């Protein structure tokens, strides 16, 4: 089954109202392949979601960067999945390594979050990835498999899930995974899905790559068989994000 290329821009904890409006203008004026070829999702900080949603072209979509693990209530500082749905925010990024590492989100907690967000009707970009230490000790595949299992154990429908493989050592470091390194892990993840969830889910679930993707390295990464898109941090705040969106055509012409 054809997996539509997907490019996400994770703006992380960046931006002022003025800067956010500038990025939206840049996106709105860009000439990019049609929605049939590439799905574009941008993820501003919570406070800017309404303004971005209201100004952004209708063929691009918005994502929150996180949400609370269960139904909202007395959880000071949290934002619930219900609130995102109420604001017609279709997507949420969950399990980003910055939240796993800095805010101690465990595999189980991320699995619960994914399950709850899906139950409320959100689409989820679920992030996984190994640290440098884990890669150097040869446990990359075991680590990403355990992270994926914690999600798989809690959900029964993968239709609204996209995996984002983001090796921690490549995030914000300028040290991008080589196309072969990315392809190897994406292949193993798809195999894990096939062996543990099912052949159909393995064939249809998109796996994005994230970690120092930029306008110069995106085409070669996009040409890898199991790379179905990108989750972009730093470069999603710059004009080169448009070039990354355009790299979807590498797939179309493959
Ligand atoms: O964490 C990332 C996207 O979620 C990747 O960040 P960079 O593209 O800045 O390395």
Automatic annotation (TrEMBL):
Source taxon at top rank: Eukaryota
Membership in a protein family: Belongs to the triosephosphate isomerase family.
Pfam families to which the protein is assigned, alphabetical: TIM (PF00121)
Bilayer-crossing regions: none
Transcription regulation recorded as keyword: no
UniProt keyword list: Isomerase
Protein name (database record): Triosephosphate isomerase, cytosolic
Subunit field text: Homodimer.
HAMAP family: TIM_B
């Amino acid at each position: 089954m054809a997996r539509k290329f997907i490019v996400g821009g994770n703006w992380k904890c960046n931006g002022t109202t003025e800067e956010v409006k500038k990025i939206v203008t840049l996106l709105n004026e860009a000439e990019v392949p049609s929605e049939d070829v590439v799905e574009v999702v941008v993820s501003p900080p919570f406070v800017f979601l309404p303004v971005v949603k209201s100004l952004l072209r209708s063929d691009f979509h918005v994502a929150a960067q996180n949400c609370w693990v269960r139904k909202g209530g007395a959880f000071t500082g949290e934002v619930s999945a219900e609130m995102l749905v109420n604001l017609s925010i279709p997507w949420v990024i969950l399990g980003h390594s910055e939240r796993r590492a800095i805010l101690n989100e465990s595999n189980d907690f991320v699995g619960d979050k994914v399950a709850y967000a899906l139950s409320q009707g959100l689409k989820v970009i679920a992030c996984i990835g190994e640290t440098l230490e884990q890669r150097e000790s040869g446990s990359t595949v075991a680590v990403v498999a355990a992270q994926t299992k914690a999600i798989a154990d809690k959900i029964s429908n993968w239709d609204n899930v996209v995996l984002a493989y983001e090796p921690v050592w490549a995030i914000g470091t300028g040290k991008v995974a080589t196309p072969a390194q990315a392809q190897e892990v994406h292949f193993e993840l798809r195999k894990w899905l096939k062996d543990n969830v099912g052949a159909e889910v393995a064939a249809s679930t998109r796996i994005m790559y994230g970690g120092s993707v930029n306008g110069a390295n995106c085409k070669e990464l996009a040409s890898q068989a199991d790379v179905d898109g990108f989750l972009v941090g730093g470069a999603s705040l710059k004009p080169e994000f448009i070039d990354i969106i355009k790299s979807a055509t590498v797939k179309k012409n493959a």
